[in-house]
Amino acid sequence: DKIMEDGFMPYIDSRQKTQDYFTAKELLVIIKSLHEKYREVILMKYVEDLSTEEIAFALDETENNIYVRISRGLKSVKDILKKQTMKKAQ
Description:
The protein is an all-alpha fold.
């Protein structure tokens, strides 16, 4: 594609960046509302960018236990988002 070869710069929609910001802010509020054992591992994983192994070491837990907590925490986040989306649609 000739345009891409010439260094085409795709248009960045500032509205999308604003929407992403509010979405991230809303997610942080939701994560902060989770039970501490889920909130802690999700923040360590996705904010502090630690591996499951590093989180397990830091919390003196098994890696499997950390994986389960992250999974359950993310499921809770998804459930809350789904409820909020349904409320907005009404």
